[in-house]
TrEMBL record:
It comes from the Bacteria. The record marks 49, 80, 84, 106 as: L-lysine inhibitor binding. Belongs to the DapA family. Its EC number is 4.3.3.7. One of its GO terms (cellular component) is cytosol. It comes from Sinimarinibacterium flocculans. Keywords: Amino-acid biosynthesis, Cytoplasm, Diaminopimelate biosynthesis, Lyase, Lysine biosynthesis, Schiff base. This is 4-hydroxy-tetrahydrodipicolinate synthase. GO terms for molecular function: 4-hydroxy-tetrahydrodipicolinate synthase activity. Homotetramer; dimer of dimers.
Length: 293
């Protein structure tokens, strides 16, 4: 089971939107050095929505090759079309990803039975560990705990990233006793510490993009049951947890990494660079976390 701080890594781009392979390599190396426990490639934070299929798989391949077994790589392969999700998950397996992260189908608004059949079809089609991803604020549908319990019975569905941002939902999932090998990850940095202390297994994180070492330390302390240390570290990160969302993710995270000299501030339309009116607030959050002087 993958545990700890799992970065939902940004996809570096030049200012014209072209993929920046050199910066991607550098980010992977940095995360390994800083203690990040695993990397999600081409998730929401990685701008999966604006990468074509060839680029999507190329980024996963590059992260796998650069990580070189030093940390697990989880490939974002979800789609609102079941056939496309299968295609992307098969491709991720072919290029060596350790697992896949599959978002609930967006826009379609399927019922719970449709969600169950969607994920079951992918699981039956591709022999790769698969993590469900529930983020109703983006997708327009909510994967309910009862449906998760049904899906957890499939051998290669190994966990869920729960991003409702409600600790009560994490606790509801934990109460289901989904099995010792089924991982429950927070998808909300602001409640991740409490989620892990309650029995969760880690955090698939935006904050880890800019504060990887401290996020690793916080998650490790929480997993060890060291509440005092985990909560103290999390307190230093709370402003980042909040202010990296002053505009839609990953706009502020990319701005922050640009300020840190890690990447260019390149995004693809319809995303645009962060409004400079937010700069003092995000900069102050970086300073509070000890990321910038």
């Amino acid at each position: 089971m993958i545990k700890g701080s799992i970065v939902a890594i940004v996809t570096p781009m030049h200012e014209d939107g072209a993929l920046d392979w050199k910066r991607l390599d550098a980010l992977v190396d940095w995360h390994v050095a800083e203690g990040t426990d695993a990397i999600v490639a081409v998730g929401t934070t990685g701008e999966s929505a604006t990468l074509d299929l060839e680029e999507h798989i190329a980024v996963i391949r590059r992260v796998v090759e650069r990580a070189a077994g030093r940390v697990p790589v989880i490939a974002g392969t979800g789609s609102n079309a079941t056939s496309e999700a299968i295609e992307q998950t098969l491709a991720a397996k072919t290029v060596g990803a350790d697992a896949a992260l599959l978002v609930t189908p967006y826009y379609n608004k399927p019922p719970q039975e449709g969600l169950y059949r969607h994920f079951r079809k992918i699981a039956e089609s591709v022999e790769l560990p698969q993590i469900l991803y529930n983020v109703p604020g983006r997708t327009g549908c909510d994967l309910l705990p009862a449906t998760v319990a049904r899906l957890a019975q499939l051998p290669n569905i190994v966990g869920i990233k729960e991003a409702r941002g409600e600790l009560s939902r994490i606790r509801e999932l934990l109460d289901l006793e989904l099995g010792a090998d089924f991982a429950i990850y927070s998808g909300d940095d602001a409640t991740a510490c409490a989620s892990i202390l309650a029995g969760g297994h880690g955090d698939i994180s935006v904050t880890a993009n800019v504060a990887p070492r401290k996020m690793h330390q916080m998650c490790a302390a929480a997993l060890a049951g060291d509440r005092a240390t985990a909560e103290a570290l999390d307190a230093e990160l709370q402003a980042l947890h909040k202010d990296l969302f002053v505009e839609p993710n990953p706009i502020p995270a990319k701005w922050a990494l640009c300020q840190m000299g890690m990447i260019e501030n390149g995004l693809r339309l319809p995303l645009v660079p962060m409004d400079e009116a937010h700069a003092p607030r995000v900069r102050a959050a970086l300073q509070a976390a000890g990321v910038m002087a």
